[in-house]
């Protein structure tokens, strides 16, 4: 058991609509599996995120509906809070970027960078619509990528090669709003001096040996072409620039991405302020022994392996120009950027604009959260793009969860309940009994090592292999044939139940809802896996109400070790833990999918 401070920094979902299962396979489920495992292992986890609510897509949606950007953000924040809670994602605090606290922390980071000389003002060419004279946001300009030649590159980023772009770099730019060619006019902005961090970022990445190789290679390649990036935008929705002559301006704001990544820090500070110890966040951000793991889909690597580390380095005074830390003191850089690839759907890329999606809320209306969590863990896009199909979802649910794990739980507890009515008292254990228990208790070492390195697919495969060993043991020992030898039958059932207790521990980070049920089926009382809850709070500074996700995770009994079961604990006939899915669901879902696309 260790007692490390571990920050789980989860990518901030953008508040322009409900989340689909592609989103939560990238940032959601992997970050929760990691956090639940680390808490079970005795570490002090702080898992934070929130909705990302600034930027142009929100203002475009607001204009289209004739409502304020805040109304759009409020509505989608609430929807997303519901989606993520339904999946059992155990945030210590899931907040939002429109809090007064977040604005203050974002402004402090900007001022720290300015003090050390890492942001500078420059007049640049910005795009406007010739017909309306209004600023054309980067994302609403499309053209050919100057780096890879991809036709559908956006003004801020090329989704094909992942490079950050400025709209003026695009070949043949056009407005996505009305198809006209944008006009570029002069506008004054603040820039982050990224080239001043080339050496510091390179040195830091050079020490990051444990990252997933694809993520590390991508991050190192980003350093080849560092250019200053505009820290501010011509927009009236976002965080004000904390400088005289700029603060009151209605046409200039901090760029949404530069405030969104500060959210990891501001949410930690908000959590501390709400906990009653406003300085508590420092244990995760300033202790040299603390670790910070950032979870996201691969389209966000640039912001977590380049932009945010550069902001932190500059705030600390750690770039080419030196400097001293801002008023918070020096802040820790990420330990690891844990990025997943993309989840496609029935062979097509998930895209809400093309409506080829399955929303989390629709999924949870018809299926269990743990069935989706299992699919993402065992077949998700950990190292490569992967495809979700309903046929494969059904097959894994039925063959692996129901017939593998669920059946082991069900037949063992049924037999013990029927014959003994309690966890049986074992006699002398045989070699076969001891071998199985050595395997199941020993798996905490092997599976835990994989989870600690975020090799989650290998971890769940190993846990399910151990479940297979327990199933094989039960078939080989055949306690149902031991009517004439109840003493031996009881030893076999005791061994099987202890193996189930161990396997349930191994699977708890992946299947927290099922883990609570199995805990209770084994006669356990109280809470094994704590689930998150939605709490209605008010802004700490301006009093506006909003919902947060939080939870008392330290109160759960789940630990990362074999927990002995107690003979004599009463057992009832179990209800099935997982639901078998009928063949007809595949056709029904494909029909829904075709109608939606
Ligand atoms: Zn490109």
UniProtKB/TrEMBL annotation:
Record-listed Zn(2+) binding positions: 145, 148, 158, 161
Residue span of motif 'KMSKS' region: 349-353
One term of GO molecular function: methionine-tRNA ligase activity
Places the protein is found: Cytoplasm
Domain Methionyl/Leucyl tRNA synthetase: 7-412
GO annotation (BP), single: methionyl-tRNA aminoacylation
Cofactors that this protein relies on: Zn(2+)
E.C. number: 6.1.1.10
Alphabetical list of InterPro entries matching this protein: Anticodon_Met, Met-tRNA_ligase_1, Met-tRNA_synth, Methionyl/Leucyl_tRNA_Synth, MetRS_core, MetRS_Zn, Rossmann-like_a/b/a_fold, tRNAsynth_Ia_anticodon-bd
Keywords carried by this UniProt record: Aminoacyl-tRNA synthetase, ATP-binding, Cytoplasm, Ligase, Metal-binding, Nucleotide-binding, Protein biosynthesis, Zinc
Reactions it catalyzes: tRNA(Met) + L-methionine + ATP = L-methionyl-tRNA(Met) + AMP + diphosphate
Gene3D superfamilies cross-referenced by the UniProt entry: HUPs, Isoleucyl-tRNA Synthetase, Domain 1, Methionyl-tRNA synthetase, Zn-domain
Segment forming the signal sequence: none
Pfam families for the chain: Anticodon_3 (PF19303), tRNA-synt_1g (PF09334)
Domain spans labelled Methionyl-tRNA synthetase anticodon-binding: 423-546
Cofactor note: Binds 1 zinc ion per subunit.
GO cellular component: cytosol
Chain ranges for the short sequence motif 'HIGH' region as given in the UniProt record: 13-23
Top-level taxon: Bacteria
Role summary: Is required not only for elongation of protein synthesis but also for the initiation of all mRNA translation through initiator tRNA(fMet) aminoacylation.
Sequence similarity: Belongs to the class-I aminoacyl-tRNA synthetase family. MetG type 1 subfamily.
NCBIfam families attached to this UniProt entry: metG
Protein name: Methionine--tRNA ligase
Lineage: Bacteria, Bacillati, Actinomycetota, Actinomycetes, Geodermatophilales
